[in-house]
């Protein structure tokens, strides 16, 4: 049953709809249908709300597709993407008959609307709730469209009735008795069925009477369609019989014409019966109309009762509100009184405190004068500070001038760069000269040692010469004695000197020659002895130096081996750390992937919760609405029951009064006609007066009931409006919350994207660093392999040097033995010379002429079977010196290789230290990333928390290895300056090895310059393998200090040149 409010609204809508023109009616229909379609998400997403015309919608293919999808959802049909005739398929789905409703787009949409709220639709309640959420005018127009569609559908004739096809009767032979008997049997069976059906089937009462109707299910009267359906329910014999062809035709059977006539009579009887049924239906409709009128009257009475009850309720509410207002006013007066009493107490307390403050202020007034005087002094100081500001401005000006001077000086430095290049060239030249000086000093030292050796030999030769002189003197004395004996005996000498003075001169000459030769031989022996002594001293010194150098190289090699072992251990640790870091990076990537998945899941959960909250709110609104409707319906039912009881009581009272009046009338009739006439007149007057009074009362009641009804309608409208506004407000709040949530979610997504980009960049940087670290580890491994190869080479060279040292020692030992033999040979040669001198003296007596020089340096000294010449001695000495030079060169090269290996080992340790620093920084970053992940895990529950970013920005990355190395070695240089090492060749605390030497005179340098260059060029020609000399290394990587000596730094460039 419809509520009076909704019935009134529908009545108003129908009146407004009737007063509209056809054009405005069609526009309002289209707009109502389009707004209903916009309630579907498929259409609302594809449609611009500003274009609310059906022509524009039907032209747009996307909108048509959206309407097709929403129709498929309503009809629960699958969507065919290849379908193009959308409205025709919708008409087929909704079974829209163009003969009844039409084939336009609006008619198809109206049929879709009726299908959506019909009982055959599975989601009917949802679509009804969507329609109820629309505007009131749209709802009214939609209800009007639904009513018109149902009226058209009910008013359409039943097309299921078809004229029987009796053409097959022409083919039958009506003269056959068998066919006649068959038809008779069929007729008897049909009559029995008709009688049974008529007896079994009672008269069907329409079910629409007494059923409560919702606003979306308007009242339907039994229409001709129901008549047709009722006629269809009747057995086949009651309607026009549809003659069907026989299952098979037989040529031997015919039907008589009598049966046809009988069938026609039966059809006429059935048509009469149908007319009677129609008349019965019309009577039933009339009964329904009367029942409907009674229901409307009852509804009016219920509305009147409800208005009275609402009036009483409103009066009671008004009185209650007045009483509550009075109580609130009294409570406010009480509160004001309490507040005033409290304020008075506070004012008393404030007065007491103010008196104390006045006492304090009297005391502080004296201090105020003191502070004013201090303030005056401070003002004077501030004024004096103005001069300080001027001084500060002057200082700033001076600072700016100093900056400009610094810039000028920098420009001058840029202009002096070529002079710097020249200075470096001069430094290189000075280093070359210093190297040459060092070599010349070594040469001088060697020459001094050789001279010492030769001095020792000379001393031995001098001692031998003195012995020979003594022997010569003895021989002379013996000769003198013999000569005196001869002079005394035979006097041959006198005769000879007298007879042959030339022989005497020759003898004197020979004696002088002999004495000269003796002196030369003595000198030669002394020189040889000195040389041998110097050579021995040189050999001893070389042996000691080689021993020291060998021990030093051994110690350095052991230290390098230890450093290499430590570096290998560090390298293994670094590789393990790199593997751990790679695993941690992979874990972090996995965690980041998990975080992304968790974020997506959180997003889905948020969307789900949002939809759930939407559904809950809509369900709450529906439940609230249903609750309100149920409450109002209960109230209406109670009110109806009360009104029905009152009506019954009133009717019983009225009936009782009527009975009493009838009895009195009878009594009055029996008494007299006159009195009856009088009474009739009086009664008529009274009844007229009562009628007038009743009419007036009825008019007043009607007016009051109408006013109350209007008030109730307005109150209901207000309640509905309030519920609507509250629902809209809640929806708006939910939309605002949704927008906030979406905004926060977008913000979170943006933050997450930024975080992901930062994390990707960090991971990319970490991967690059890992690749760099791996490359550096590979480089260090290659360098370690090179160092191991070099170490093996150095060990081999060490073995060769040791073998060479042993060989040289053996050679020196052999040389000492040969020198002793040579000394003996020299003595023998001296004796041979004496004998030869004597032989010559004898020969001079026989051959006075002598053409050759008595002493020839090229002639060998012979003594017996052996002969040693001066050229062989000089050759041996030159070979010995050359061998010593080669050994010294090899020693220098070994020292340089050792220093280069030590520097390379230190560079490797330095690189290892840098790698450790990088690994520590990567570990710190790793820990920071882990902390960020932990914070994200903590804030995962609170979706609206901001995303944490990295602690450091990408600009503040780890510095390059070069800047780190420069800072490290600057610190190491400062430490080395504060605590220098005792070793002059290698500094073990920094990768710089310095060699300092004192100032040298230019005359000393120039004296040995030419000789040193000559010797070095000769050595290069002799040993082509040893191409890298100390001078070239000094030219490449050494710097010269003019005041405090030369400082040679073995840097990485020097190590690279040695490696090459």
TrEMBL record:
Keyword terms: Coiled coil
Biased composition (Basic and acidic residues): 618-637
Bias-annotated ranges (Acidic residues): 167-191
Transmembrane segments: none
Biased amino acid composition, Polar residues: 220-232, 638-649, 945-963
Positions of region (Disordered): 153-255, 478-497, 618-649, 840-875, 935-1007
Compositionally biased tracts (Low complexity): 234-243, 966-983
SUPFAM superfamilies, sorted: Hook domain
Coiled coil: 522-605
Name of protein: Uncharacterized protein
Provenance organism: Chaetoceros tenuissimus
Lineage: Eukaryota, Sar, Stramenopiles, Ochrophyta, Bacillariophyta
């Amino acid at each position: 049953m419809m509520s009076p409010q909704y019935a009134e609204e529908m009545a108003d809508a129908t009146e407004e709809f009737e007063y509209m023109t056809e054009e405005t009616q069609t526009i309002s229909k289209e707009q109502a249908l389009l707004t209903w379609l916009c309630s579907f998400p498929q259409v609302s997403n594809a449609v611009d709300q500003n274009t609310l015309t059906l022509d524009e919608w039907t032209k747009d293919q996307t909108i048509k597709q959206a309407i097709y999808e929403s129709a498929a959802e309503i009809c629960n049909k699958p969507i065919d993407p290849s379908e193009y005739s959308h409205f025709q398929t919708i008409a087929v789905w909704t079974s829209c008959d163009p003969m009844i409703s039409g084939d336009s787009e609006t008619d198809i949409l109206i049929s879709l609307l009726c299908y959506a709220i019909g009982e055959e639709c599975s989601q009917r309640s949802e679509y009804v709730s969507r329609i109820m959420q629309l505007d009131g005018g749209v709802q009214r127009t939609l209800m009007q469209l639904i009513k018109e569609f149902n009226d058209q559908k009910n008013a359409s004739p039943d097309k299921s009735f078809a004229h029987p096809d009796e053409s097959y009767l022409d083919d039958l032979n009506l003269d056959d008795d068998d066919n006649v008997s068959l038809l008779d049997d069929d007729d008897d069976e049909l009559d029995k069925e008709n009688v049974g059906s008529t007896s079994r089937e009672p008269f069907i009462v329409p079910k629409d009477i007494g059923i409560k109707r919702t606003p979306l299910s308007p009242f339907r009267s039994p229409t001709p369609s129901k008549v047709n359906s009722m006629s269809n329910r009747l057995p086949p014999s009651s309607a026009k019989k549809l003659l069907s062809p026989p299952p098979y035709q037989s040529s031997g059977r015919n039907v008589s014409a009598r049966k046809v006539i009988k069938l026609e009579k039966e059809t006429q009887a059935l048509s009469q019966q149908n007319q009677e049924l129609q008349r019965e239906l019309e009577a039933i409709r009339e009964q329904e109309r009367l029942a409907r009128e009674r229901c409307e009257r009852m509804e009016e009475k219920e509305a009147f009762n409800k208005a009275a009850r609402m009036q009483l309720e409103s009066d009671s509410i008004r009185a209650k509100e007045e009483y509550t207002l009075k109580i609130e006013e009294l409570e406010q007066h009480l509160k004001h009184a309490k507040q005033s009493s409290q304020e008075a107490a506070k004012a008393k307390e404030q007065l007491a405190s103010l008196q104390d403050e006045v006492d304090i202020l009297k005391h502080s007034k004296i201090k105020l004068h003191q502070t004013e005087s201090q303030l005056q002094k401070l003002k004077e100081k501030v004024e004096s500070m103005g001069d300080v500001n001027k001084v500060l401005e002057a200082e700033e000006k001076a600072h700016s001038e100093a900056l400009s001077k610094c810039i000028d000086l920098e420009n001058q430095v840029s202009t002096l760069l070529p002079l710097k290049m020249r200075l470096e060239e001069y430094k290189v030249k000075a280093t070359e000269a210093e190297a040459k000086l060092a070599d010349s000093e070594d040469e001088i030292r060697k020459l001094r040692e050789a001279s010492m050796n030769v001095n020792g030999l000379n001393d031995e030769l001098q001692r031998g010469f003195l012995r020979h002189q003594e022997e010569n003197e003895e021989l002379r004395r013996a000769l003198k004695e013999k000569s005196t004996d001869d002079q005394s005996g035979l006097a041959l000498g006198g005769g000879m000197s007298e007879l042959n003075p030339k022989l005497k001169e020759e003898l004197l000459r020979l004696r002088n020659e002999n004495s000269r030769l003796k002196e030369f031989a003595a000198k030669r022996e002394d020189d040889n002895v000195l040389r041998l002594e110097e050579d021995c001293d040189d050999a001893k010194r070389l042996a000691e130096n080689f021993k020291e150098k060998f021990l030093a190289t051994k110690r350095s090699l052991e230290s390098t081996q230890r450093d290499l072992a430590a570096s290998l251990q560090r390298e293994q640790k670094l590789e393990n750390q790199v593997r751990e870091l790679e695993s941690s990076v992979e874990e972090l990537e996995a965690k980041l992937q998990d975080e992304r998945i968790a974020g997506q899941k959180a997003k889905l959960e948020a969307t789900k919760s949002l939809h759930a909250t939407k559904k809950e709110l809509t369900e709450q609104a529906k439940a609230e609405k249903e609750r309100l409707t149920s409450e109002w319906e209960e109230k209406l039912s109670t009110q109806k029951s009360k009104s029905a009881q009152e009506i019954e009581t009133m009717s019983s009272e009225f009936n009782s009064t009527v009975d009493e009046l009838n009895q009195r009338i009878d009594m009055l009739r029996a008494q007299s006609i006159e009195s009856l006439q009088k009474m009739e007149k009086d009664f008529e007057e009274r009844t007229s007066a009562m009628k007038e009074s009743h009419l007036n009362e009825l008019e007043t009641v009607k007016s009051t009931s109408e006013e109350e009804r209007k008030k109730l309608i307005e109150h209901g409208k207000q309640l509905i409006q309030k519920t609507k506004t509250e629902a809209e407000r809640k929806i708006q709040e939910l939309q605002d919350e949704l927008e906030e949530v979406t905004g926060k979610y977008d913000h979170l997504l943006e933050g997450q994207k930024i975080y992901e980009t930062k994390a990707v960049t960090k991971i990319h940087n970490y991967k690059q660093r890992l690749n760099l670290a791996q490359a550096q580890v590979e480089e260090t491994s290659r360098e370690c392999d090179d160092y191991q190869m070099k170490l093996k080479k150095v060990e081999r060279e060490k073995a060769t040097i040791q073998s060479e040292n042993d060989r040289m020692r053996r050679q020196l030992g052999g040389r000492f033995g040969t020198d002793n033999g040579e000394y003996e040979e020299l003595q023998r040669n001296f004796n041979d010379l004496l004998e030869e001198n004597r032989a010559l003296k004898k020969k001079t007596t026989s051959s006075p002429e002598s053409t050759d020089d008595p002493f020839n340096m090229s002639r060998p000294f012979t003594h017996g079977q052996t002969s040693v010449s001066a050229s062989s001695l000089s050759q041996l000495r030159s070979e010995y010196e050359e061998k010593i030079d080669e050994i010294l060169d090899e020693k220098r090269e070994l020292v340089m290789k050792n220093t280069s290996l030590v520097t390379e080992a230190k560079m490797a340790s330095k690189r290892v230290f840098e790698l450790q620093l990088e690994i520590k920084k990567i570990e710190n970053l790793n820990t920071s990333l882990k902390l960020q992940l932990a914070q994200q895990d903590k804030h995962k529950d609170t979706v609206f928390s901001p995303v944490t970013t990295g602690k450091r920005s990408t600009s503040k990355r780890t510095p390059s290895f070069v800047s780190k190395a420069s800072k490290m070695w600057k610190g190491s240089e400062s430490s080395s300056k504060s605590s220098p090492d005792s070793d002059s060749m290698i500094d073990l605390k920094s990768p710089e090895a310095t060699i300092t030497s004192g100032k040298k005179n230019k005359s000393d340098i120039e004296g040995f310059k030419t000789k040193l260059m000559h010797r070095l060029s000769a050595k290069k020609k002799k040993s082509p393998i040893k191409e890298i000399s100390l001078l070239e290394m000094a030219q490449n990587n050494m710097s010269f200090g003019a005041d405090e000596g030369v400082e040679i730094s073995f840097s990485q460039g020097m190590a690279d040149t040695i490696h090459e």
